[in-house]
């Protein structure tokens, strides 16, 4: 793991492989851990980059640092410049969707392609628990640690259509436990501002790159109809449903996701047109 110091924050990142660059963006309450097996599988043909947003995973979680969409987009833009990448392929899940879209549509950073997986990108968004926390972040940040841990474990498990392995729940919950992790979880939910999603929806028709939208058919956090609307708003975007998968497609349908990832990246790297599946 390496770190990038940016505006007082420590951003954890890693790189592997060789070939065209592919950058993976995670969402909330996740980290780059979700993408690591897929990055490893692609590293024989691509240079893969993983990073944890400030306030997430192994990156710093300073209580005084803002963690909203605008800050995360600025951090991603700075990280791309630090890596000296020119037109990388970007793969984004959940919050990573609005962050990567903002960097492209608002800040004008070019990508070779963009693949969005059950992305937070257009309104509305958020699970019932997420909306509850949004309304009462300070109260929940003060619950006893054993209650908080039970909430977090139930929260992350609820994103899956299939029952998660205990080891996977442990990995997903770990960054949000302890004196640093507990307040960090509620702080990033409190920073959620849906106006950024409305802004992105109004700019979708400006996207001038190959875009593929993947969506779990059983996603109860962000229903597939939102994914279809997202793809419909992007000129020429390809849409593919992932059967029997919830919001955590990486764990619900890893083989299907890995197949779509490699097929997409191979085709766009070779300049081949993608098909639209609805």
3D architecture notes:
Residues 20-254 form the AB hydrolase-1 domain. InterPro entries: AB_hydrolase_1, AB_hydrolase_fold, AB_hydrolase_sf. Pfam families: Abhydrolase_1. Helix 6 packs across helix 7. An eight-stranded mixed β-sheet has the order 1-2-4-3-5-6-7-8, sandwiched between helices. Mean pLDDT is 94; it is low at 272-278. It has twelve helices and eight strands. 42% of the residues lie in helices and 17% in strands. It has one domain: Rossmann fold, CATH 3.40.50.1820. By secondary structure, the protein is α/β, with parallel strands linked by helices.
Tell me briefly what this model is.
The chain has 278 residues and is α/β, with parallel strands linked by helices. 42% of the residues lie in helices and 17% in strands. The model is unreliable at 272-278 (pLDDT under 50).
Can you give keywords for this protein?
278 residues, alpha/beta, Rossmann fold, 17% strand, globular, disordered C terminus, AB_hydrolase_fold
Describe the secondary structure blueprint for this structure.
Layout: E1 2-6, E2 9-17, E3 21-25, H1 36-42, E4 47-51, H2 69-83, E5 89-94, H3 95-105, E6 113-119, H4 128-135, H5 137-141, H6 145-157, H7 166-173, H8 178-190, H9 195-203, E7 211-216, H10 224-232, E8 238-242, H11 249-252, H12 254-269
Parallel strand pairs: 3-4, 3-5, 5-6, 6-7, 7-8
Antiparallel strand pairs: 1-2, 2-4
